[in-house]
Specification:
The chain has 451 residues and is an alpha+beta fold. It has 15 helices and 21 strands. It is 39% helix and 22% strand. The chain is globular and about 65 Å long.
Length: 451
């Protein structure tokens, strides 16, 4: 039956999880992945970067019954450990409740677990080293390359989880005569590492996301289970400083010695890694439509690639998978209805988290150093305690709740205005006028209902 055979392009976290959802609905799924099986080969630098798993992603993993198997892969991060120039690192908690943490997880480890779960269903076959070369939606033909040879196969229904350069997106746009907006970020990234100490010990605080904010660039590091950290330098592609100017080992070491001396002391292989690892690019993708009739769909980065500064790329993609599953249930497996509903529901939320992620880059590389930012964060927690049915900090709405991203953005903008007004002339939390806060929240946040 046509409706029971589905082709998925891409076996990354989103494609693997989606295939599990579909298998549990009784579909027969074939997944084509352009890379070798990461369970049998070493992951190249740039694809092994750690991911941040938060509430939305965990909800999807729990829906398919995998959260208990994922837990041993996770390292909780209670907040940002901010390494300022000249001072000791300071922890800025993500929230003020015990459960408000995010989790560092190996991309490779999580993807391998999802692949195993998909294949063990008996309904999913993953074909590695198969690169999608093109799609003819009218003829239902998929062109693939394997071991240097190109060939075509038929498909019944196809779903693209094939990332920012998605071939399925290209085919949908050609068929729909619509457009795709790509917003390149002027900054790129380079994956580095901080190795473990003796007996796989952590050489920095393990339960934090470490960040070295420097205004127009930053270094971050997420913990690994083996005691080391995956570090990522975010820096302009051109200008000074930039990846273009860090062209030899001497300049690289001088830059790190000036900007990140405590990190440099923990990175014995920095020159080898820096010049061996690729420099990654970052972009935001906004496209529509996401589907073609009931025959083709894109989700995850293929539909809405975002910059990584809110830790929501994977979480948003996992939420996509759960949302599609729910749409299929409501539509009684009517794919035409389900895909239209899915796009209408998810597109505004994808645009919202794209905006929030870009805004969070400024916060991470600059604002976290600002005393007013820290005051407003403390005030936001105080207001959440005082008005739990009205005020939830924007970061918490995104990371620790499942409030739609578009709603979190709307509420967050109103709350930011409120925090600005309450801290305009004070420098201490005890001096905030809570009577004024009562009035502002009654005026501005009256329509806020508990999530």
């Amino acid at each position: 039956m046509r409706s029971k055979r589905i082709t998925v392009i891409g076996a990354g976290p989103a494609g693997a999880l989606l295939s599990i959802y579909l298998a549990q609905r009784g579909y027969e799924v074939t997944v084509y992945e352009r890379h070798p099986d990461l369970r049998r080969v070493r992951i190249p630098a740039g694809r092994s970067i750690n991911l941040a798993l938060a509430n939305r992603g965990m909800h999807a993993l729990a829906e398919v019954g995998l959260m208990d198997r994922v837990k041993p892969l996770l390292i909780p991060m209670r907040g940002r450990m901010v390494h300022t120039e000249g001072g000791p690192p300071q922890l800025q908690p993500y929230g003020h409740k015990p459960h408000e943490v995010i989790y560092s997880v190996s991309r490779g480890g999580l993807t391998a677990l999802l692949m195993e779960a998909a294949e063990s269903s008996g309904r999913v076959a993953i074909r590695f080293n198969h690169t999608c070369q093109g799609v003819d939606l009218e003829r239902h033909r998929l062109r693939l390359r394997d071991d240097g040879k190109e060939f075509e196969i038929d498909f019944d229904r196809i779903i693209g989880c094939d990332g920012i350069q998605s071939r399925i997106r290209q085919a949908i746009l050609q068929s729909a005569s619509d457009h795709c907006e790509e917003e390149p970020l002027a900054h790129g990234y380079k994956e580095l590492s901080i190795p473990a100490g003796e007996n796989q010990s952590f050489r920095m605080e393990a339960n934090a996301l470490h960040i070295w904010p420097r205004g127009d660039h930053m270094l971050i590091a997420l913990p690994n289970l083996g005691g080391g950290f995956t570090a990522t330098l975010f820096l302009a592609q051109e200008g000074d400083p930039s990846f273009a100017t860090l062209c030899d080992a001497a300049r690289l070491r001088a830059f790190f010695h000036q900007q990140f001396p405590d990190a440099l002391a923990l990175m014995p292989q920095i020159a080898r890694e820096f010049f061996h690892h690729p420099t990654g690019t970052l972009s935001t993708i906004r496209t529509r439509p996401w589907h073609f009739r009931d025959e083709a769909l894109i989700l995850g980065d293929a539909a809405h690639a975002i910059v990584p500064f809110h830790g929501q790329g994977m979480n948003c993609a996992f939420e996509d998978c759960g949302a599609l599953n729910a749409c299929l249930t409501r539509a009684g497996e009517d794919w035409d209805t389900a895909l239209a509903e899915f796009e209408d529901e998810r597109k505004p939320n994808a645009d919202a988290i794209a905006d929030l992620s870009l805004e969070n880059y400024l916060e991470m590389r600059s604002s976290v150093r600002d005393a007013r930012f820290q005051l407003q964060q403390e005030l936001a927690w105080r207001l959440e305690e005082r008005y739990p049915d009205r005020f939830i900090p924007r970061y918490s709405m995104v990371m620790f709740h499942r409030i739609p991203y578009a709603e979190a953005k709307r509420r967050g903008a109103i709350q930011d205005e409120t925090l600005d007004a309450l801290t305009a002339s004070v420098h201490n939390l005890d001096h905030v006028d809570l009577v004024y806060a009562d009035r502002l929240i009654e005026e501005k946040l009256a329509d806020m209902n508990p999530p």
